[in-house]
């Protein structure tokens, strides 16, 4: 909890003045029964209407001042809770963006979304209640007990007994319910996960007619969440009737014992009414206190989940070195290995060098390690053995921002964001002007269809660019990468949705760029890589061939088999 509590330092003023104004309201509330007692014992007893009206005015004044104090406290509570929630979301989102792909998978994206939204909301609500009620409720309980003791110490014992019994009931119920709150949050994670999977995979679900089964899976998760929430609600719901029984019994005891005191003259009627009012105030404060315990217990469970993110150190951190613009960015891999799990290797002992302005092909069967190599280049993951250099500098020593400016990856699955085409292209370079954007679109073979759109660069893309075809999305992603003028452009099977002619024109245009980047083409198509300066052939995590198309046809059996299989496919 220390990490979460540290965010209070931004809201010291709200944390001080908010509770103080709420405390002032509680003080005026405690004074009201005493005034009521005077009205009964003096005004009504003596039939003094002036006195009654004057004391009634005092009560109205107390109420108005209390309202002003309450509104001021509410303002400070809103500033603190909303501000802290904003700071927490910002910190959590920033931390998530520092995580490696493996760390995101470890938490799961659905759980991260739940923690960023629902869990922060729980903490935010607890902060608001902390300022508004955490001091007021205990103060009213103790204040009511103190005022009762000032009126009659014997009668105050009934208050003390009620507090002890209610505290015991509260501790038992909170102990029983506390571990259920984490279960509720886990069920919310599960619902988020299923929802995310269904929204992303809706085409596949419909293609396989899985709508009914997926709906059933969601219903089961929702039912599990409902049952977990009901268990918490059932236990928490016992508190109000339990405290009502105790308080009502306390009021009965007050009236019973107080009647003897009134008859003997030891206690006035007004003071007996004041004691009943204080018992009622104490009851309401204890109910609030019980609800606070529920809110704080939920918030504690959520805070621990948020803190788990904030305390997780990013697996990949950058250095401080930046590449000199005058230095050629040669990429070198030396005996690089990587395994996603301990004892297993996705790639082993991979070594190669890419010179500036070269075009290199990377090919191999499914699961041979091509995607792993692509992720290693911008340090989305780090090798478990070996070293990678760019421009003679180890990747670990380069700042991540500079490294990822130098190496741009265009994945097979085109990822675009809601906004205009111009805004998406400027992800590559925020300062790029329209001329640079059109040049990148021309090189990426995307200029024609963008110009054909009524609004051109100002055309709005929906989430994921779903209002464009697959080939259009891929070309826009290639153009976005080219806007940044990288030293190495990695096309990770990112022309799979393009026809052969467009693919060929794209490869030709990349060679015509002034100061053209080195290009690494990862592809399953021989046609896409056959004219590369050299080709790397992967098989079962190892580099089994390196050379030009003609050289590999003579020396590499794996490459020969790939060529034969695609030739047979073409003949069919």
UniProtKB/TrEMBL annotation:
<feature type="transmembrane region" description="Helical">
    <location>
        <begin position="157"/>
        <end position="181"/>
    </location>
</feature>
<protein>
    <submittedName>
        <fullName>ABC transporter ATP-binding protein</fullName>
    </submittedName>
</protein>
<dbReference type="InterPro" id="IPR036640">
    <property type="entry name" value="ABC1_TM_sf"/>
</dbReference>
<dbReference type="InterPro" id="IPR003593">
    <property type="entry name" value="AAA+_ATPase"/>
</dbReference>
<keyword id="KW-0547">Nucleotide-binding</keyword>
<dbReference type="InterPro" id="IPR017871">
    <property type="entry name" value="ABC_transporter-like_CS"/>
</dbReference>
<dbReference type="GO" id="GO:0005886">
    <property type="term" value="C:plasma membrane"/>
</dbReference>
<dbReference type="InterPro" id="IPR011527">
    <property type="entry name" value="ABC1_TM_dom"/>
</dbReference>
<keyword id="KW-0813">Transport</keyword>
<feature type="domain" description="ABC transporter">
    <location>
        <begin position="331"/>
        <end position="565"/>
    </location>
</feature>
<dbReference type="InterPro" id="IPR039421">
    <property type="entry name" value="Type_1_exporter"/>
</dbReference>
<keyword id="KW-0812">Transmembrane</keyword>
<dbReference type="InterPro" id="IPR027417">
    <property type="entry name" value="P-loop_NTPase"/>
</dbReference>
<dbReference type="GO" id="GO:0016887">
    <property type="term" value="F:ATP hydrolysis activity"/>
</dbReference>
<feature type="transmembrane region" description="Helical">
    <location>
        <begin position="282"/>
        <end position="301"/>
    </location>
</feature>
<dbReference type="GO" id="GO:0005524">
    <property type="term" value="F:ATP binding"/>
</dbReference>
<dbReference type="Pfam" id="PF00664">
    <property type="entry name" value="ABC_membrane"/>
</dbReference>
<feature type="transmembrane region" description="Helical">
    <location>
        <begin position="52"/>
        <end position="77"/>
    </location>
</feature>
<keyword id="KW-0067">ATP-binding</keyword>
<dbReference type="GO" id="GO:0015421">
    <property type="term" value="F:ABC-type oligopeptide transporter activity"/>
</dbReference>
<dbReference type="InterPro" id="IPR003439">
    <property type="entry name" value="ABC_transporter-like_ATP-bd"/>
</dbReference>
<keyword id="KW-1133">Transmembrane helix</keyword>
<feature type="domain" description="ABC transmembrane type-1">
    <location>
        <begin position="16"/>
        <end position="298"/>
    </location>
</feature>
<dbReference type="Pfam" id="PF00005">
    <property type="entry name" value="ABC_tran"/>
</dbReference>
<keyword id="KW-0472">Membrane</keyword>
<keyword id="KW-1003">Cell membrane</keyword>
